[in-house]
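BUG: 3D viewer hangs when loading the predicted structure for this chain

Environment: internal workstation, default settings.
Expected: structure renders.
Actual: progress bar stalls at 90%.

Input used:
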Amino acid sequence: MADCCVFCGKELKRFEKVELACAGVAQLACKDCWNKYKDVPKIGQYRAMLSAGWAAEPEKLRAILAELEQEEVEAEKLNKLMSCCGQPMTPLGVSEYQLGRTGWIMGDLPNLLAGSMELALFRCERCGQIKFMDPKIMKDRMKEL
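Structure tokens produced before the viewer hung:
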């Protein structure tokens, strides 16, 4: 069987094809489609491949697409919760912060006894503002949305 473009179905000759690695499967595209889709996010590329019907191992693509769509839904929920300057804030991850402080008389003992606190960090890319949130409450609020 001849190789064909995953997007348009055009039969590909030896030097006309570009190989894309998608979901661990090599997908072939013509140079025209490659130029059209190279700047499209992966989720858009996968949707286009599946809608065209020329994809190799479409079940793997569907599984990856479902995961990407779930991540997109989670990101939208997070963006609704955390915004600043009219735009969503960038999540920086979850970190533990040490409570208490080192004293002159008792040294590090109060610091060790105070423990630590887990916080989720978010940054506004426009103004640089940083917000700290309790990750447990964030998870509960995301479930409500």
